[in-house]
Write a structure and sequence with these properties.
This protein is of the alpha/beta class and 331 residues long. It has helices at 14-23, 39-49, 58-63, 79-88, 103-116, 125-128, 130-140, 175-191, 281-292, 303-320; strands at 5-10, 29-35, 53-55, 69-72, 92-96, 120-123, 147-155, 196-203, 209-217, 223-229, 238-242, 245-249, 258-263, 269-272. The strands form 2 sheets. An 8-stranded mixed sheet has the order 8-9-10-7-11-12-13-14, with helices on one face. Strands 3-2-1-4-5-6 form a 6-stranded parallel sheet, sandwiched between helices. Strand 5 (92-96), helix 5 (103-116) and strand 6 (120-123) form a beta-alpha-beta unit. The longest helix is centred in the C-terminal third of the chain and has 18 residues, at 303-320.
Length: 331
């Protein structure tokens, strides 16, 4: 691949706008096409960002020979179809989190990408953030000893009305896939896949989770206490406690501006971000690095890790009784 990486953007909502804004600040990144379900939406997005081609349906984007990689920013329920069609068309894919509705769909996507020898990555931008990477390095290097507990939360004040996508089961609504994926992924980053999953939730009349608490356990004896909510402004903080110390991440733990390492017998050490913590540049740059290197997955966001997170999310939904319409077998 040449130094220039040509992107196609699938969907035109808020996260696609934020991603494209940051993407266009990267050297070597070129956005050549955008697609939406309506031509008007695609055209308006193209006009805003100076994108040369706009498609009012997905097929045009997938058939565009100038597109190297497709960024899938649709709601969760469409990830499997959209990313799958892009891979079948020979495109590399960066797909928003959660990767799919469930582990079965994720396994299908990963198998397809590996069979075709194509790049696929979940857009877990937190994993690409320099400070999160530093936290993982410190934990891996034993800076706080053996990990004993992880705590993390992500809640929005709400309330969201019944017509909002976050309360719509048909599009994978609920707190877990939109918000809970962050604390779950944070725990997975530090401890891997848990051996036990317990959960409790408040469900909406539509059947999606409004407030979910999770207790994950590992054979090492470590545990994680995690929560997500569409009905309360939680602290949005995280902490990792080990046998020799603790790491505290303040509000906005998944895009931190700073964190503090506290070790027994030492003064607290503060680590501070040197650039915009809210930027999507890091994950986009990682995709471009991998493509230029001929890699089919990123070591920062490995596919096996994304599959493990999806299994945990499935287990949580199983415990609290959330099933999406696409998963219900007709009688």
């Amino acid at each position: 691949m040449s130094d220039k990486v040509r992107w196609g953007i699938l969907a035109t909502g808020g996260i696609a706008q934020r991603f494209t804004t940051d993407l266009l600040t990267l050297d070597g990144a070129e956005v050549v096409a955008v697609a939406s379900r309506t031509e008007a939406s695609a055209s308006a997005f193209a006009d805003r960002f100076g994108i040369p081609r706009a498609y009012g349906e997905w097929a045009g984007l997938f058939a565009d020979e100038d597109v190297d990689v497709v960024y899938v920013a649709t709601p969760h329920h469409a990830h499997r179809a959209a990313a799958g069609l892009a891979l079948e068309a020979g495109k590399a894919v960066l797909c928003e989190k959660a990767l799919t509705l469930n582990a079965r769909e994720a396994e299908e996507l990963v198998a397809l990408a590996r069979d075709r020898g194509l790049f696929l990555m979940e857009a877990m931008w937190m994993y690409c953030h320099p400070l999160i990477r530093r936290i993982a390095e410190l934990v891996r290097d034993g800076a706080i000893g053996e990990v004993r507990t992880v705590q993390a939360d992500f809640g929005l004040q709400g309330p969201f009305d019944a017509g909002h996508r976050l309360r719509d089961p048909a599009v994978g609504g609920g707190a877990l896939l939109d918000l809970g994926v962050y604390p779950v992924s944070f725990a997975h980053l530090l401890l891997g896949e848990p051996s036990s999953v317990h959960a409790h939730a408040l469900l909406s009349p539509e059947g999606v989770d409004l407030n979910t608490g999770m207790l994950l356990g590992w054979d090492s004896g470590a545990s994680a206490l995690l929560s997500c909510s569409l009905d309360g402004d939680t602290p949005l903080t995280a902490s990792v406690t080990g046998s020799l110390g603790r790491i505290d991440v303040p509000r906005g733990f998944f895009f931190p501006e700073r964190f503090t390492l506290r070790r027994h017998g030492h003064e607290p050490e503060e680590y501070v971000s040197t650039d915009d913590p809210l930027s999507f540049r890091h994950e986009a740059a990682e995709v471009m690095r991998a493509l230029r290197a001929g890699e089919t997955e990123s070591p920062l966001v490995p596919l096996d890790g994304s599959l493990a997170v999806m299994r945990t999310l499935d287990a949580v939904r199983d415990r609290v009784g959330v099933r999406y319409p696409q998963e219900v077998t007709p009688a």
